[in-house]
Design goal:
By secondary structure, this protein is mostly helical. 53% of the residues lie in helices and 6% in strands. It starts with a helix and ends in a 12-residue tail after the last strand.
Length: 254
Amino acid sequence: MNKKFKFEKYTIANLTNILILFMAIVNILDIITNTPYSHFQIQMLLTDQWWQIFLFPFRITDNLLSLILFLYIFWLFGNMLEQELGIVKYNLFIFSGYFFILIGTYFYPLDAYYVYLSVFFAVAYLYPDMEILLFFILPIKMKWIGIFTGAFLLYNAVILSLKINSLLPILGPILGLLNFILLIVLPDIRNKTPKLHQIKFQINKREENKPLHKCTICGITEKDDPYMDFRYCVECSDHEYCRDHLYNHEHIKD
């Protein structure tokens, strides 16, 4: 049995929409009851505030307008990433993000905002040339927003580290985006690094004057489109795909 289907029964379908519902309820109740927004720390599990861990993933802001904007953006990118990764991997992405953040709260105040920020970075990484309207007016590519946001997070962390003479603030962006690094960036880098048998295969093809790359799904080669990117899928058995089908195919196990 495919491992994906084995674990799928333990996952939550439509996770993005469910999280949005709980975030809306928790934050609106906080705003109505004028509950002060506070960071959760894992040390609170040993106090009478241990129950706060159940609200930790859903507390975002105490401003209604910011909440509405945040929920819309997360609905847009969360559903996009959930469809791209599939139910199992998306659940792993979200819940591993919560876990890393909880561990990080032992050292430095963090909140679940970083988990949802990692969703944005994942979409920006997978769809770098996708354009969105910044401030609903200015078209800009996702990669530039991702680069600017990442640089802004790193700058703030470094400045705060220098100010308090400690490296702990840098744990914020590192742990907050660790799920993005482990589940999106590293697998993609591994896909781009050819294995030994793949290199031999490419040499043989070159000697025969045949295309070096060919998509398993549509059959396109670099001779058909010299600007097309080709990569190997880590979950398939030595099958290569074009950019359009790398994240959109049934995995092949030989």
